[in-house]
Structure of CxxH/CxxC protein:
Amino acid sequence: MHVVCKEHLELAIDMFVDEYEDAPDIVDLEEVKFTGWDPPPHCERCAGPGRFLVV
Ligand SMILES: [Zn+2]
């Protein structure tokens, strides 16, 4: 599972495909809220906002 900004979305997708050999689901965290789970505030690769969940 990766939480990334828009700039790192493609990289996270590539990493996911390498890791699992399958296409990930991409969740826009501005549109979807999970109860009982707060996403990390920042991208895992930079200080940008963590906008997309790649899972
Ligand atoms: Zn980033």
Remarks:
- The pocket of zinc ion is lined by residues 4-5, 7-8, 43, 45-46, 48 (CB under 6 Å).
